[in-house]
Structure formats: structure tokens, C-alpha cells
Write a structure and sequence with these properties.
This protein has about 110 residues and is mainly α. It is built from 4 helices and no strands. It has a domain of about 70 residues.
């Protein structure tokens, strides 16, 4: 029997863990591409009133992210254990990237 996994009490406590799970640059870049495409598809769906595009959002967002984890980061996405915090982490990490925030201390 293994040791129990840490349970995070807040997003602020979770986010450093989340960043450490994204230490591979290619994995992070795939997250950025997936999140950006989600925003583009969301905008298209709203502007065109073609709401079927909304069905593609999880496939696009998680598809790119999971490829990054399974093939480059070689870890299990945090989405499986922390779905809400992980979803929030995707958007905060993208915001940090766009604004130039240096999170390199969390990357192994």
C-alpha cells in the first residue's frame, strides 16, 4: 500500500504542483496551443451561432494537453485527480505565458 497522495486545500497551494507537472517545454506549448484553439473555436461558435463547435472544445483543449503529458512529460495529467484545479491551472498558466511571468523555478 502506497503513501496517501497530498490533497490540496486551495488553488494557490495546487498551482506550484501544477507547474512542476508541466516542466517540459513541449508539453507546455501543446497546452498553450490547445487553450488558444479553444478560445478561437469558442469565439467562432458564438460569432457564427454555430454552437455545434462547442462540442469540440474539450476534445481540442484536452487532446493537445494529454498528448503533451503522455508523449513529452511522461506523467499522468492532473485533470484525472484535480479536475477543477487543473482546468483553472490551464488558464492561469496561459495567462502567465502571455503576460511573460517567469515560472521557471517550478520546472525541473
Amino acid at each position: 500500500m502506497g503513501t496517501p497522495e497530498k490533497r490540496f486545500q486551495s488553488f494557490a497551494e495546487f498551482y506550484p504542483f501544477y507547474l512542476a507537472e508541466h516542466s517540459n517545454r513541449t508539453c507546455r506549448n501543446l497546452h498553450y496551443v490547445g487553450s488558444s484553439l479553444v478560445l478561437a473555436c469558442l469565439a467562432y461558435a458564438i460569432l457564427s451561432a454555430d454552437y455545434l463547435w462547442l462540442l469540440a472544445l474539450p476534445l481540442i483543449g484536452y487532446g493537445f494537453a494529454w498528448v503533451g503529458h503522455f508523449f513529452f512529460e511522461h506523467n499522468r495529467p492532473a485533470t484525472f485527480q484535480y479536475p477543477l484545479y487543473s482546468f483553472m491551472g490551464d488558464w492561469v498558466m496561459l495567462k502567465d505565458f502571455v503576460t511573460g511571468k517567469d515560472n521557471s523555478q517550478y520546472f525541473r
